[in-house]
Amino acid sequence: MQIYTAPLRDMRFVLNELHTDDGFGDIPALADFTPDLTEAVLSEAAKLCQDVLLPLNRSGDEEGCTLENGVVRTPKGFIEAYKAFTEGGWNALVLPPEWGGQGAPEAVGKLVEEMICATNVSFSLYPGLTNGAIAALTVYANDTLKQEYLPKMVSGEWSGTMCLTEPHCGTDLGLLRTRAEPGEDGSYKLSGAKIFISAGEHDLTTNIVHLVLARLPDAPKGVKGISLFLVPKYLPDADGNPSVRNGARCTAIEHKMGLKASATCQMLFEDAKGWLVGEPHRGLEAMFTMMNAERVGVGIQGLGIGEAAYQSAVWYTKDRLQGRSLSGTKHPDKPADPIIVHPDVRRMLLTMRAWNEGCRGVSAWVARALDAEKHGAEPEQRQRASDFVALMTPVVKAMFTDLGLESASLAVQCYGGHGFIRESGVEQYMRDARIAMLYEGTNGIQALDLVGRKLPAEMGRYLRSFFHPVSDFIDANLEDPAIGKMVAGLKRAFEALQGATAIIAERGMKDPEEGGAAATDYLRLMGLVAMAYCFAKATKLASRELMSGTGEAAFYKAKIDTARFFYEKLLPQSASLYLAIKAGKGSVMDFAEEAF
Ligand SMILES: Cc1cc2nc3c(=O)[nH]c(=O)nc-3n(C[C@H](O)[C@H](O)[C@H](O)COP(=O)(O)OP(=O)(O)OC[C@H]3O[C@@H](n4cnc5c(N)ncnc54)[C@H](O)[C@@H]3O)c2cc1C
Description:
two-stranded antiparallel ribbon; alpha+beta; seven-stranded mixed beta sheet; binds flavin-adenine dinucleotide
């Protein structure tokens, strides 16, 4: 059974309590978003997600999307849900007020995104891609394009896509073939085939605005010859309303393992009219604005599914009766004890819980940095925030989505054989979670981005935006009677991360394959340290609250107990990751290709 109640108390904890000392807070431009307003936003979002999106999750998975005569239909109920969603302004929650958005903090927006992904990740892609396209257009489009397209996209009347992938060209965008020929009126004619385009065609909006990567006739080879174009499904008339059908159409939709209610389209562009966005040959730069925004969002998909999977597993393990507790019968009135009494089942539940709380703590930190990057009062604060976001984006994308799948798999395990049966609902979480490790750059590519680009950037300045607060916290709290032991664990993991960084920097300089072989382990190690830092801070806060005799003792005690589990059972992975990194590339690269 798919059940979900938004973890609002936990969300308030990461939003209002955990990160107040990170130097990213108190942003004047966001002062209108008072705690009362934020509270109301979160509660209303929870209602919409639980009452409207969740009931469509299973039916959308069963029904999927259909293509008939070039028209893609979303599953029953999606049109109405999208209407309720956009009428409530949820699509525009964090978008700029200048174009009709509500300008809410990302710190709030990311929590709402988590609820949307927990209740219906397929649905989340329709507004999600649009918001990414808006991010790119806001920065790179000229004023005419902005005026013509942004208000309708921000209102949700029109949606957006991101058209990069071609049959022979996925990770390596340098191979891209779609062409753009200049026309006489300043527009371009685009021709080429794209595959795997999310929301490329659907019935939720009156127009679809494709952001398409293509090559101009004089383009240099490789990634330095790619430009970005805006190509609408319908060309707007003089009043800005959709009129003539453009040469962009969906030729097929993919039949997928999961995410079935999201239309994944093969698109054909045949002399489709489009307009250049940004500078010629600099399209990747513009597209990366979109992809960076999307990557954090994809990480949140992992967290959302992880939370939904956890809640379903908790419900089931309290209900399912099998065997007796090893420490003696707990429910003599029943034929057997509920399986939640068994240590191995508790291990699975606590693993999911710790991953979810760890991810939420880290994402709330990154979200605050996203706000400070945009609205910070001082240039120094904006720079530090921007460095931190750049560093953590691949970690959020890859680690959260890996853990989303792990949690979904653990939920299936908690259900036993019933988890494998569709009716249980949890097998859908596994299928839906899997894609997030692949799109927006596979998780392997995220790890390479972290090691190859983000670590050496600005002589290690990005890295310092993370290392400094962690190191300061360790120094300040190592002797603290309440959390000193935990901080000693954080110190060990942090030293492993520092050691691994030095190894990668030294070996990677001489041999890039050393960095490549260490990248995935290194990303996980960094993510573990980020989580460990959040858990230690949470424990400090919770201990203080308990000492002061809070009325919420159960909530804060559970915070401390989850942190303890993380430190004792999950953080030790940092030691083995360090050893694997230290071992170097030898065993990976010496293996003969013909022996595979
Ligand atoms: C449901 C779905 C929705 C999607 N939505 C969109 C969308 O809206 N728009 C869009 O443009 N695309 C979209 N995609 C495409 C998606 O982004 C790509 O599938 C993804 O980027 C990987 O490309 P690929 O499938 O060609 O894999 P490949 O690039 O062929 O990679 C295969 C494997 O090799 C590894 N690999 C490749 N190159 C390297 C390297 N240099 N170093 C190390 N490892 C490497 C990869 O990590 C991966 O494990 C979607 C895909 C799916 C399935």
